[in-house]
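Exercise 7. Given the encoded structure of a 350-residue chain, write a plausible sequence.
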């Protein structure tokens, strides 16, 4: 008695243990058997209901089985073989009708993406021969949609990069550093996904590392030097390919434009400085020994003209009144600025 009870409990325990795919297959097999019985019953009922009208039998069959589940591929093939057999015009006509209906339904969708989704949903219920019939359409649509999605991704990336570059528009770039050096700095930062945290220091782009020290881009090795614990990580291969392909032209345009603006401002500043320097000479604000300070503020100084303006300034300031004053000032100017004047006779021999 005790042994029988033990055996019963052991069997119960054994049957309650999940055995993975084996149990799933067993369940699906049972479902398949039940569904086959359902289909056989349906076929019998329809032939009884419409004994002389095969078209009505077939139409009712299709309507009643529209939502039938396919637990196994074997049942899928069983169902479609039974469907072909029931078609009033025979199996080949049934196949042609299924192909035509599928094409008609697919063409009701306008976009390639909608058509691909439709076919992929249908394929799960297609018989093997119908899957082969539309495999080319699925591949073509998938290729077109992949290209479309890639182009969308590229457009979004360009837009995002342009926005991030515009955020750097107020950052100073060293105008004495070549364009390509600045471009390489920014491309490297973008490849390491560090452009959003980029800054400039002494006119070069870089980032503040984990030790709170600014590191120029040309000295960066990887993201780990910036983010010790990095959930994002270095961009993957596909993203790197997109960065390499799309970022250089955008970054070049940004660098060229930004440097041109900075150099233009420098030129304007230089022009303003020349105006100030000329005023100092004209008004005699600088004595002859200080004229060199004004000369250095001119981009392309014509020294004889500037010395003449300095002499006029001496007159305006009231320091040049006599010939002796003129000789003394000329002596100082010619000797102090003789290197600027070229082959000018020594003032001591004047």
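Solution.
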């Amino acid at each position: 008695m005790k042994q029988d009870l033990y055996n019963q409990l052991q069997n119960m325990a054994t049957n309650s243990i999940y055995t993975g795919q084996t149990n799933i297959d067993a369940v699906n097999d049972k479902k398949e058997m039940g569904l086959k019985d359902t289909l056989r019953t349906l076929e019998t009922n329809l032939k009884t209901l419409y004994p002389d009208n095969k078209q009505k039998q077939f139409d009712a069959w299709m309507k009643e089985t529209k939502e039938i589940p396919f637990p196994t591929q074997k049942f899928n093939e069983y169902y479609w073989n039974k469907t072909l057999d029931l078609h009033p015009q025979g199996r080949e006509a049934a196949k042609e009708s299924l192909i035509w209906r599928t094409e008609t339904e697919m063409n009701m969708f306008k976009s390639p993406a909608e058509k691909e989704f439709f076919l992929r949903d249908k394929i799960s219920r297609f018989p093997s021969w119908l899957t082969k019939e539309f495999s080319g359409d699925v591949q073509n649509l998938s290729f077109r949609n992949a290209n479309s999605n890639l182009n969308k991704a590229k457009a979004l990336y360009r837009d995002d990069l342009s926005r991030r570059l515009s955020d750097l528009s107020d950052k100073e770039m060293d105008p004495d550093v070549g364009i390509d050096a600045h471009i390489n700095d920014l491309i490297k930062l973008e490849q390491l996904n560090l452009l959003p945290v980029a800054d400039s220091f002494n006119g070069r782009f870089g980032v503040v590392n984990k030790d709170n020290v600014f590191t120029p881009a040309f000295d960066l090795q990887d993201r780990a030097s910036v983010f010790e614990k990095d959930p994002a990580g270095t961009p993957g291969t596909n993203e790197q390919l997109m960065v390499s392909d799309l970022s250089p032209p955008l970054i070049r345009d940004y660098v060229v434009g930004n440097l041109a603006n900075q150099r233009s401002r420098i030129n304007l500043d230089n022009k303003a400085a020349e105006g100030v320097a000329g005023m100092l000479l004209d008004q005699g604000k600088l004595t002859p020994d200080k004229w060199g300070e004004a000369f250095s503020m001119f981009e392309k100084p014509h020294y004889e003209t500037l010395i003449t303006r300095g002499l006029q300034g001496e007159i305006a300031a009231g320091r040049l009144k006599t010939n002796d004053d003129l000789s003394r000032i000329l002596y100082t100017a010619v000797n102090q600025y003789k290197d600027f004047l070229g082959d000018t006779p020594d003032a001591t021999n004047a």
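Remark. The CA atoms of residues 107 and 212 lie 60 Å apart. Students should compare their own answers with the one above.
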